[in-house]
Amino acid sequence: MVRYHPEVGCLEKNDSYLVVFDVEGVLLPKRRFLLFEIAARLGPSTFLRFLLIGILYEVGILSIESALRRLFRLLRGISIDDLYAQYRRLPLMYGTRELFEELRRHRFKMALVSSGLPRAFVEDLANRLGADHAFGLEIGIANGRLTGEIGGDVVKPDGKAIALKKILETEGLPSHSCIVVADDRNNLPMLRACGMSVGYNPDFILTVKSDYVVRGDLSRILPLLTKRAFPRNTRSLSRGEVLRELIHIGGISIPFVCMHLLGDLLVALLIVMVASIYAVSEFSRMLGKNLPVFSTITLKAADKSELQELAMRPISYALGIVFSLLLLNPPISYASIAVLTIGDGSAAIFGKLFGRTVSPLNKGKRVEGSVAGLIFAFLGSLLFVNPAKALVGAIGGILAESVPSPIDDNLMIPLVSGLAMTIIA
What we know:
There is one protein chain. This protein is of the alpha/beta class. It has two domains: 2-225, 3-Layer(aba) Sandwich (Rossmann fold); 239-423, no CATH class. Helix content is 54%, strand content 12%. The longest helix is centred in the middle third of the chain and has 23 residues, at 264-286. It is globular and about 65 Å long.
């Protein structure tokens, strides 16, 4: 049996225990979903239809079952061999193999549960990683090609919880001996049926619902599952992290370029152009073709886990600045950019170096980082607005950075900050 001790952040081992992994977004890159990868090869029309279905699912209009049935109908006639070949080309998330090797060494039972991958593919992945159980979609195949039909427990609203219950019954384990590692709301039924949950690069719902939140290298969840203390603070920044935060903070130069050189509209257009080229470079990188300068910077600045998929946060960062320039009036627009660049960048640096206290608003944040971000956001805003507005803008921006939201904080921070300063104008 496993006893969960939230006060020490680990599990005490007396007998067998089980770790259940969601597959897409945890073991395989979130933004390289197999069905979208194959759809991209079928032409722009099919890919756009896939994208629309994906958006309708994300905003809650379609259930997971309804979305998957529509997606697989669009793949009717695709060779199962082609689908399998595309699946084998998907990279594992950074740290996956190391994590599973350690889990086997610690005698954990392991299971993979997927709503979006065919069962045979999940079983193949389980064999590669040494997992004990695998659950996935049942798909229709005739003459070696997809019929477009799907079935199985995992597509049902509580399907993953049903799969979890079967695994626990097979192993003869109680539910509180189970740990679930997942990334999105589709896994909530499993979270409610386990003793401990870890949100890995989670969406905002799992950020709230999970017991712990881990980002970056997947192997960072290991201390949570053993008797070692959780590494709340590594007290170091990699070269990539230093470069990334320097670029982030360097955005404070943009208001000065607007004021003294090019003007708001021209700067906004230039940022959109650069972001568009960056997006092209990212899609090219996924195809194995590097775009000079852009791909080089991405490879040096991105987190290792981000390199397995499209690194899209720079685009949301660019859009956050553009929206500030176009929707807000100077000098409030410039102050909101200061909150995003200096404030958010400082929060990330200080949270990483000195963070020990988990934020009560967001398990993925540290109070020390938020306090530092508030101070530096205030000081940066003082370059453009009076102290009262600077303080209100800094508070609004850091709250937007700290509270889990379905909207990227690179967009939320400057807009909330700017709106707060506008209200007290």
